[in-house]
Automatic annotation (TrEMBL):
Mg(2+) binds at residues 235, 256. K(+) binds at residues 231, 250, 252, 255. This is tRNA modification GTPase MnmE. GTP binds at residues 231-236, 250-256, 275-278. Binds 1 potassium ion per subunit. It comes from Flagellimonas allohymeniacidonis.
Length: 456
């Protein structure tokens, strides 16, 4: 397998559709196109301009396989930077397979996962973080994750890193130059300016690192555990939030034996609700397993909804949750408002601060609950032009880069020799370069692109 090969893949999902797109990329793309395509106007694709579309037929020997549209993109002005053809054929799995087989017989290789985007990266059409954003964009399932991916794909994230890296590279060169003149005790790199740059880089790195907490939850959804005694209405609440009957609702205590998870989007932010098996002491083995899972799910949650259904709720459980998870937000919510008297409501309000009242069954208070949930997420960064890191590989590289920058700073403070300083700077440059792809290894590329879908 070589990156020089001309590759082909179905770019749209397999299965039946109105149209399907088959994509070919590589130096022979247009030549191969001319072997299988006859334009209705009779002109060869090889003579067509870039960025043009042509109606014609896919021909296998004398047999017409389909009437299609072929888009021609000549390298380097294409997605991959190579010659690219996109064949829009009719979306029957039979036609897709016939056309693909024909193209493979003409000498194309079947593309591996993410190979079109890998080519784009290798040909300098985008940097690594932009290429990764393509995968995120395809996978995005909420307005927030979509926005983060789009911003990253446009290069917002990597341009910031790249310009810092260049500044640091300049200093690295100056400090390395000093090594050549080590006998003469000269300083080409102005230490004061260098210190200032290091502080600036640290600040930017820290901000990006901090943004990951938000970026990560926005990408994967904010996990919210719904906890409470059996029968308080956890499943009903989940259904009300999801607006459909996904969890089983019944009035026999302990019905929700396993955990159920589902996501809803509130104002563009995904929340992953985890209905739990309720916590009560039990001898039932199956239920016991469910309860253990409940605790492990609570561990993963960012927010905990403590649901109860009246004045005789389990105070001990609420207090235990607060003690056990001091860093998690716990939302006390009283369900079955329809059954409560004014006095009961008053007493509960007196006892629990910021308690919300709902009726999961009637849908009362669900809007307020959704607003409250959204309000708990600090989405301030979403509205501005702030860069949000959502990729754990980037997060990792940023942490390592920051660590190296701190080392350089400490080295400067105790005035270590330029050669040691240069080593630490190179390390920091390496980790920054890992993000944008200025520094890559085959393993890293393999890892990233194998997670793509075929045809992208
Ligand atoms: P879970 O065990 O906590 O998941 O509780 P369920 O969701 O299965 O609900 C237990 C029972 O309470 C069911 O019969 C529901 O119909 C009922 N229920 C749930 N929410 C409400 C509500 O807001 N008002 C009233 N009156 N009943 C409710």
């Amino acid at each position: 397998m070589s990156y020089e090969d001309t590759i082909v893949a179905l770019a749209t999902p397999s299965g039946t559709g109105a149209i399907s797109i088959i994509r070919i990329s590589g130096k022979d793309a247009i030549v191969i196109g001319d072997q299988i395509f006859k334009s209705v106007r009779g002109k060869k694709l090889g003579l067509q301009k870039s960025h043009t579309i042509h109606l014609g037929h896919i021909i296998d020997g004398k047999k017409v396989l389909d009437e299609v549209l072929v888009s021609v993109f000549r390298g380097p002005n294409s997605y991959t930077g190579e010659n690219v053809l996109e064949i829009s054929c009719h979306g029957s799995p039979y036609i897709q397979q016939q056309v693909l087989q024909l193209i493979l017989r003409k000498g194309c290789r079947a593309a591996s996962a993410g190979e079109f985007t890998l080519k784009a990266f290798l040909n300098g059409k985008m940097d690594l973080s932009q290429a990764e954003a393509v995968a995120d964009l395809i996978a995005s399932d909420s307005a927030a994750s979509h926005e983060i991916a789009l911003n990253q794909m446009r290069g917002g994230f990597s341009s910031e890193i790249e310009s810092l890296r260049e500044e640091l590279l300049n200093f690295a060169s100056l400090i390395e130059l000093e090594l050549d003149f080590s006998q003469e005790d000269v300083e080409f790199a102005n230490r004061e300016q260098f210190n200032e740059l290091l502080s600036r880089i640290s600040a930017v790195l820290k901000k990006l690192i901090d943004s990951f907490a938000l970026g990560n939850v926005l990408k994967h959804g904010i996990p919210v555990a719904i906890v409470g005694q059996p029968n308080v209405g956890k499943s009903t609440l989940l259904n009300a939030l999801l607006n459909e009957d996904r969890a089983i609702v019944s009035s026999i205590a302990g019905t929700t034996r396993d955990t159920v998870e589902d996501s809803i989007s509130i104002q563009g932010v995904n929340f992953r609700f985890i209905d739990t098996a309720g916590i009560r002491s039990t001898r039932d083995e199956v239920e016991q397993i469910g309860i253990e899972r409940t605790f492990s799910k609570i561990e993963q949650a960012k927010l905990i909804i403590f649901l109860f259904d009246g004045p005789d709720f389990d105070r001990e459980q609420l207090n235990n949750l607060k003690d056990q998870y001091p860093n998690k937000r716990i939302l006390p919510i009283c369900n079955k408002l329809d059954r409560l008297t004014k006095k009961q409501i008053h007493d509960i309000e007196e006892e629990i601060q910021n308690v919300l009242f709902i009726s999961a069954k009637n849908g009362t208070g669900i809007d307020t609950l959704q607003e409250t949930l959204f309000g708990l997420v600090d989405t301030g960064a979403l509205s501005g032009d702030e860069t949000i890191v959502s990729n754990s590989r980037h997060y990792d590289a940023l942490l390592k880069a920051l660590e190296e920058i701190q080392k350089v700073k400490e080295g400067m403070d105790i005035e270590i020799s330029s050669d040691l300083l240069a080593i630490d700077i190179r390390q920091a440059l390496f980790h920054l370069g890992e993000i944008t792809g200025s520094v890559t290894t085959d393993d890293l590329l393999g890892n990233i692109f194998s997670n793509f879908c075929i045809g992208k």
